[in-house]
Design a protein that fits this description.
The chain has seven helices and 13 strands. By secondary structure, it is α+β, with helices and mostly antiparallel strands. The strands form three sheets. The protein has a six-stranded mixed β-sheet with strand order 4-7-2-1-9-12, with no helix packed on it.
Length: 316
């Protein structure tokens, strides 16, 4: 087969070019072609890395019809770099760059797609240090959050109340994640166990403002058991806060978010919003009226979908 080496050289050159300049889907397609792997084999290798991605999703990714956006999908991209024998961060970098260009000016008030990708990679690292698998063995039945915005207009802290159900035996902890606003200093944050749990190991990453903390239960849950616990995070380490966003990997139970403002410094308007993914435009925007002597706003979602929900506010 005299033409095989020449063909291999062409494929390798195409891959090198795609990894340098992108876009993401072209580089992914070139990498899969260079390794000669059918998508079914790629899916099999991903499953061995503990990541579940369908063949259809892989096909869409390499065609550019869809983009990896959820945390589980971003874990898959990092696994693909290893499976396809690519330089570390090569695909993630292209994904982040293309995400920034796609978002344009529509998302200037929110964290960039790049920062979300970087935070996802950091979170993987912190969870690995805590020995926490992607699936912690718990389904969320209800999650109620209360956010405090202080007199300096900063994210002063938040409190979370979880109602969960175990879907396997032996679950005895939950890993709480807090992503501060730009400039946040995790080393100065504090985690407090408020009900039915105690604080275990805590990991922090200063560059992205991410904190991950073990909350240890006082019992081992069996499959089907329900459990209630509550914890808080004291922050107050960043500058002016303008929104709070909560991401959901999959559909689940009820979610409620309340944002409480210092009486001396109130925003001029507040609104709720949703996003199907980190790179998608925002939708479902709705103005929220202040309540509780004009100091708080809230949203309630009876059953969340995969994606993002949040509340934003404008200062004078």
């Amino acid at each position: 087969m005299p033409h095989a080496p020449q063909h291999a050289d062409v494929v390798t050159a195409e891959l090198d070019s795609a990894l340098r300049g992108g876009p993401f889907h072209v580089a992914l397609r070139a990498a899969i072609a260079a390794r000669g792997l059918p998508l079914q084999r790629v899916q099999h290798h991903l499953s061995r890395h503990g990541v579940k991605v369908g063949v259809t999703s892989l096909s869409y990714w390499q065609q550019g019809a869809r983009r990896p956006q959820r945390p589980e999908s971003l874990r898959a991209v990092r696994a693909l770099e290893e499976i396809l024998e690519l330089p570390e961060e090569s695909l993630i970098r292209l994904l982040a760059e293309s995400g920034d260009s796609l978002s344009g000016g529509q998302r200037s008030a929110s964290r960039s797609y790049r920062s979300l990708v970087e935070a996802s990679g950091v979170l993987d690292q912190l969870l690995a240090e805590l020995g926490c698998p992607p699936d912690g063995g718990l389904h969320t039945l209800a999650h109620h959050e209360r956010l405090r915005v202080g007199a300096r207009r900063e994210l002063a802290g938040r409190e979370s109340h979880h109602i969960v159900r175990a879907h396997r035996d032996g679950v005895d902890r939950f890993v709480a994640v807090h992503h501060g606003d730009r400039g946040a200093v995790p080393e100065r944050m504090a985690v407090h166990a408020l009900e039915n749990c105690r604080v275990g190991r805590v990991r922090r990453h200063g560059d992205t403002g991410v904190l991950a903390a073990e909350l240890l239960f006082d019992t081992r849950l069996r499959a089907g058991d329900t459990f209630l616990f509550r914890y808080g995070v004291e922050d107050g380490t960043a500058g002016v806060s303008r929104e709070y966003v909560r991401g959901f990997d999959s559909a689940g139970g009820q979610y409620a978010l309340q944002v409480c403002f210092d009486a001396a410094v109130l925003p001029v308007r507040c609104h709720r919003f949703a996003q199907a993914s980190a790179a998608a435009p925002r939708s479902g925007c709705q103005e929220l009226a202040m309540s509780g002597r004009h100091r708080s706003v809230h949203l309630v979602e009876p059953r969340v979908r995969a994606g993002f929900l949040g509340i934003g506010w404008d200062w004078e």
